[in-house]
């Protein structure tokens, strides 16, 4: 298991190699220590089919539409995945534009996906980026390259291992 330590209040873990395009100051600091940023989100059941997700003190509600037993109080998990991909691609596109002194005003990202069965999943994604007024083909290609290098895009193209575990019963619960 990786050696975990804290840097500027964020968790990092040791890894042999790091790849990326745009990184946060914490991620850069971790890289200089031959470490990579370790992310975490906690999801708590509320009621019905509604959950609250929390990361770094930010909270968002995840729910289902009424036709799937929900109250439509928030996006569904697949919609969060699309939002994650779109905001990540948008962030990288804006970073490209800002680094070159180009306007990012009005930039929009639309992400669509098709559902597949056996197993149920999102099978194909399409990211459409609109940068009003960006006519220089060199920069249009640069925005596209930047968006394609975003962390979520790379994760979906190179699936990570997913370990799912059930936490052991608390000692107090087993003492009953």
Describe this structure in words.
The chain is built from 5 helices and 8 strands. It has 176 residues and is an alpha+beta fold. Among the domains are: 1-40, no CATH class; 75-157, GMP Synthetase, Chain A, domain 3. The strands form 3 sheets. A 3-stranded antiparallel beta sheet has the order 1-2-3, with helices on one face. It has a 3-stranded antiparallel beta sheet with strand order 4-5-6, with no helix packed on it. A two-stranded antiparallel sheet has the order 7-8. Strand 7 (108-116) and strand 8 form a beta hairpin. Helix 2 (77-99) crosses helix 3. The longest helix has 23 residues, at 77-99.
CATH class call of one domain: Alpha Beta
The count of DSSP E runs of length 2 or more, i.e. the number of strands, is 8
For the terminal residues, how far apart are their CA atoms? 34 Å
Average pLDDT taken over every residue: 85
Largest sheet: 3 strands, antiparallel
Q: Structural class, please? A: alpha+beta
Corresponding CATH superfamily of one domain? K homology (KH) domain
Q: Helical element count?
A: 5
Question: Could you give the order of the helices and strands?
Answer: EEHEEEEHEEHHH
Helix content: 25-40%
Strand order of the largest sheet: 1-2-3
Tell me which CATH architecture of one domain applies here. Answer: 2-Layer Sandwich
The CATH topology assignment of one domain is: GMP Synthetase, Chain A, domain 3
Q: Identify the overall geometry.
A: globular
Q: In angstroms, what is the radius of gyration?
A: 20 Å
Strand content: 25-35%
Oligomeric nature of the chains: single chain
Low-confidence stretches: 1-10, 13-21
């Amino acid at each position: 298991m990786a050696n975990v330590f804290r840097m500027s209040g964020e968790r990092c873990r040791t890894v042999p190699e790091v790849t990326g395009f745009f990184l946060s100051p914490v991620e850069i600091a971790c890289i200089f220590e031959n470490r990579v940023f370790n992310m975490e989100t906690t999801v708590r059941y509320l009621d019905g089919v509604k959950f609250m997700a929390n990361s770094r003190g930010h909270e968002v509600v995840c729910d289902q539409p009424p036709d799937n037993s929900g109250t439509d109080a928030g996006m569904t998990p697949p919609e969060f995945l699309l939002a994650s991909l779109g905001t990540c691609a948008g962030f990288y596109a804006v970073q490209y534009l800002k680094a070159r002194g180009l306007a990012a005003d009005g930039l929009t990202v639309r992400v669509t996906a098709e559902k597949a069965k056996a197993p149920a999943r999102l099978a194909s994604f399409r990211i459409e980026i609109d940068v009003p007024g960006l006519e220089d083909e060199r920069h249009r290609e640069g925005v596209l390259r930047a968006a394609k290098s975003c962390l979520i895009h790379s994760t979906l193209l190179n699936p990570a291992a997913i370990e799912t575990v059930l936490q052991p019963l608390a000692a107090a619960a087993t003492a009953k």
